[in-house]
Amino acid sequence: MAGRRALVTGGASGIGLAAVRRLLADGADVVSVDRCPPESGERACPYLTADVTVAADVTDAVHAAAALLGGPADLLVNAAGIYRIRPLLDLTPGEWDEMLAVNLRGTFLAGQAFAGGLVAAGQPGAIVNIGSTAALVADASEPTAHYNASKAGVVALTRQMAAEWAPYGIRANVVCPGVIDTPMLRLMDDPAAGQAYLETGVPLRRLGSAAEVAAVIVFLGSADASYLTAAVIPVDGGSTAI
Ligand code: NDP
After folding, report:
1. Which residues 6+ apart lie within 8 Å of 89 measured at CB?
2. pTM over 0.85
3. For the chain, which end, N or C, has fewer CB atoms within 10 Å of the first or last residue's CB respectively?
4. Amino acid 161: pLDDT
5. Domain span at residue 66?
6. Domain count, the chain
7. What is the DSSP letter of 160?
8. In the prediction, which pLDDT does 189 show?
9. Residue 239 lies in a domain
10. Is the pLDDT of residue 150 over 90?
11. Which CATH number do you get for residue 157?
């Protein structure tokens, strides 16, 4: 990834942070964007604070990243996201709106600002969005309809980005992680239920690591994936197959 300029949202934690680390290790220049600064021990690259639901924040961050990187970023990783459990009958309109705002609107805003900069500069690039297996399968024991809908939206949005921006040399793909060991995981159900799920619902019978997702993200952003666009790639230990 030497010579590549990457912008990672949600780069202070979990999968986004793992992507930052892997991109840096592979030689890219990276700027991380998150709602809060990373912990001091995790400040491996320049970082910006922005709320991905706020259009002006996102536009400012994309411009500031271009200044830090010496040109417009040519890889965008959209990893900022939230997760909440709420049975569908109890879900409030406000909870629905918050979820869609961060996970779907945030992905749209960052993608549009990123692609706009590349198109204006006449340069190619790649987008890797983070969906979820929750976009692909339902689970009554994990009631997250608003999360699932937001991630299904990310899948559809990614395909449309790929279709509309291919003429500009911009590829867009979406990674759909299964159950990955990040701070977000602590928001999920109780440990015993989690262990039972791993044994019956995941052929590889273990959690995934953020680094394992980051490896796929960086592949999709690299020249090795030059003929891949509009792909929906589960990174889930096989859970969507059974
Ligand atoms: P983390 O909570 O570790 O990281 C998400 C980061 O996004 C946090 O730093 C969070 O900040 C930030 N963020 C949240 N809202 C905003 C916002 N409005 N503006 C800017 N940054 C924001 O979670 P993961 O790394 O696990 O998740 C990364 C992505 O992967 C998410 O899209 C998630 O849905 C997806 N995913 C995760 C799975 C898992 O099992 N972990 C499975 C499937 C998909 P803060 O901490 O302040 O909220």
Report:
1. none
2. yes
3. C
4. 99
5. 5-234
6. 1
7. H
8. 63
9. no
10. yes
11. 3.40.50.720
